[in-house]
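Please fill in the sequence for the structure shown.

STRUCTURE ENCODING:
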């Protein structure tokens, strides 16, 4: 996923274990198309059926609170796809739909009856500035679809 989701954590118990994960929820029930003449996204009908819900566990999970708070946590291994048959564990999204990433911090409760406290052992966060439109191709008519560079630009130019 680009740009990569990064977060700085504080307030965790330094000695406790935590699992960090992300999921994605649709923002509405619409499908969109891009209107080049107005440089804007327009609703183009009802949303496609929701893709199978998946979560992405940060690969360092579980880890101590001290480790998570020591530096910025990056979800650079998180991969998105529109392939409903994906068997690589990628997050499946519908193209041309709007999504809100959600970030979850889960306390790994060492108590034997921890399931009784499950509702208390996690916090979820959504940041409106991370909302995005899932696309599978460049939505800019000046970008060559096959080459991924501007038309007329010399080879090797992004």
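FILLED IN BY: designer on duty
SEQUENCE:
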């Amino acid at each position: 996923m680009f740009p990569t989701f990064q977060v700085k954590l504080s307030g965790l118990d330094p000695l406790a274990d935590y699992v960090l994960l992300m999921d994605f929820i649709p923002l509405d029930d619409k499908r969109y198309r891009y209107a080049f003449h107005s440089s804007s996204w327009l609703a183009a009908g009802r949303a496609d059926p929701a893709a199978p819900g998946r979560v992405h566990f940060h690969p360092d999970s579980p880890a101590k609170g001290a480790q998570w708070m020591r530096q910025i946590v990056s979800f650079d291994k998180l991969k998105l796809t529109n392939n409903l048959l994906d068997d690589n564990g990628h997050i499946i999204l519908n193209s041309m739909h709007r999504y809100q990433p959600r970030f979850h911090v889960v306390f790994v409760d060492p108590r034997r009856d921890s399931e009784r406290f499950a509702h208390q052992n996690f916090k979820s966060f959504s940041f409106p500035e991370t909302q995005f439109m899932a696309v599978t191709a460049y939505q800019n008519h000046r970008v060559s679809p096959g080459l991924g560079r501007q038309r007329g630009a010399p080879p090797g130019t992004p």
